[in-house]
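Lab notebook, bench 4. We co-purified these components, and the gel suggests they stay together. Before we commit to crystallization screens, I want a quick structural picture of the whole thing.
Request: model the full complex, all chains together.
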Amino acid sequence: MDVASFLQQCGIGITSGVFLGLMAVGYTLVYGTVGLIHFAHGDVVMLGGCLALAILSFLVPLPVAPVTGCLAVILAALCSGLFCGCLNVCIDRFVYRPLRDAPPLSPLVSAIGVSFVLMNVGLVWIGPTDRAFPEIFLASTRSVGGISFLMADLLVLAISVPPLLCLYILLRQTRFGRSLRSIAAITRATARSGEAGKLIGTTFFISGFLGGVASVAAGIHATTINYQMGHQMGLYALTAAVLGGIGSVPGAIVGGLVVGLLRAISVAVLGPRWAMASVFLVLIVFLAFRPQGIYGKSKTRAGQR
Amino acid sequence: MRNNWFCLQKRSSSRLRWFVVACIALGLNCFGCQETNSNRICLVSSLPRTGVSRQVSDEVVRGIRLAIEEVRARVGRFTLEYRDLDNSASVSGQWTSEGEAANARLAVQDPDVMAYIGTLNSGAARVSMPILNYADLLMVSPANTAVGLTKPGLGIPGEPDVYQPSGRLNYMRVVPADDLQGPLAADWAFGRGVRRVFVIDDAGIYGQGVASLFADRCREKGMEVLAHVSIDPQAAEFKSFVGSVMSADPDLVYFGGSARTKGGQLARDLVSAESEAILLVSDGCRTKAFLDAAGATSLEGRCFATSAGLSPQQSDCSEIMFLKRYQQKYGTCPSNAAIHGYEAARLAIRAIADVGRKDRRAIVESAFASRVDDGVLGAWSIDENGDTTLQEVSVSVVRNGTFEHEEVVPAAGIGKKNVSR
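Here is the predicted assembly.
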């Protein structure tokens, strides 16, 4: 692979890595707060994609002017984010909250159940086939230094980065962020208190909102969505969250970028059939040497504190 | 006292258990096809009724229903019933081994079932063929194209004998196998002046088989096969991979697979990367689902699809009775899938009518001996392996948002591929 091809693949990897990072932050926020792997997150994102598709199909009759298209995408991302946020809050309220005192496997199994239910909702909503996203900027390519990239990929970055910056400010500058960072996980004893309930609800909302934005970015990047997209995206995003150190927001973003890059480069070098296997092979080897992930704290260090 | 109470409990729980068993048995009898009826013959089909393949299955089922309506649901003294069985799971969106095996067992256990129409996918046929073979139940596929299902020496070692544990044949198909489609696609490409090809498959039995045969024939013809790569059919997109395709600079990109295995997404990514190469896809992609996913407008005039057999678009819809009735009923000309479903059902119905009794073995033998002179796509019969004698492949091109018939490629020069047992 020559340098230009390598850089080209890096560009594709970063684009997909950014929205995987957005999803991974969702996993990591929920895990950091209630200690639960929210397995249905991928399918919440898929439903966000369905809503975005409906909005964009309504707002963007082809051919579309770039400015109109961008505004429609931003509106779709906001709506999809709000929808996924609310859906996540409902899932927490009606599925996870009654199981706060249950053995750890009960919420896990419920999460998997919710995932299948949502997948079937997606099947009914958009049907069994791949559905094409409106082709905003699809034909527009730009070339810089021999590396060509699609304008649509810039749009993916443009809608994915601002929510991450907002999250950074939220976590660093607000009382909510400070209280979220001050606890590694809400204990069972405090989970039912009003304060903790609000914190958990808000966390689920933010997680869903980021997932909703990620769904629009993924739809623009892949140009199609389908009712099974949540499964594989969720798997990659969960991998990113674990690789970055589950519970760590910067770790999730870095993990997303690493997974995106690894996937793009392994597709180009080994072929698309081996991409997933190679990503997981790297994860296995990495975790063997650093089980806590890139930014995670080891148990001994955490215990000393 | 305690002992009495215990005995009572034990007796009532035993009664309850027997009651449940009786209810289940009754339920099975009521809802299944288990009850023997001397005047009833059951025809079943096993197709994926959810997921991407559903559109194709719907068309096959329409064809089957029209064939049954044509004989007014009667064969001699028997009333003909049809059961449309589903071999897929909505979560996976495709056929499952469990679903296919369950359908085959259901058909075998029902003494009124005399023919099994299916499967759509060659992989599914591999599951049900041995089960149906033990019961000598006629199995007619409207869509399987994997060579190993019928042709000795062309599939994986042991095929097709592993699917015939009884040593007798019961399986046949009304579509030509991939040993025709893959090589004829290569012949067509060569005829268009293509010299550099990039071959891609979906890593499945069907896709890999047809793509390998295409690549082999390309080499025979002196074309350069730049690469033969399998994709991950679960991947969301192929942007990174398309970069490798573009850097190889092929004249033609061939995809062996279906819309279900991301053929549409691959085509879309190739177009968005501004590839100048012609795209040629196998018959699994010759569907609306493929065009919806790929975006028909972007493929206009540059995406071609092969399909086994003659194209229905060669005939005027108003001329042939079946085509006319199909158009009247559904408002559109039938696709190849509908025609093959119709032909499969008609073959089974004729075999049952010829035998005139519920004798599964005799029905299979009658189907093998049938000769269809008034077939929708011409005259054909079943050879000694269970393959159709139709030996043409049609090529279609995307035009006006749909696949339109382009030309017929005859089988001249590749007859040696048809190995007899």
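The interface with chain B takes residues 5, 8-9, 12-13, 16, 116, 119-120, 123, 128-132, 135, 138-139, 141, 150, 218, 221-224, 227-229, 231-233, 263-265, 267-268, 271-273, 275-276 of chain A (CB under 8 Å). Worth comparing against the SEC data before the next meeting. The domain at 3-304 of chain A is CATH 1.10.3470 (ABC transporter involved in vitamin B12 uptake, BtuC).
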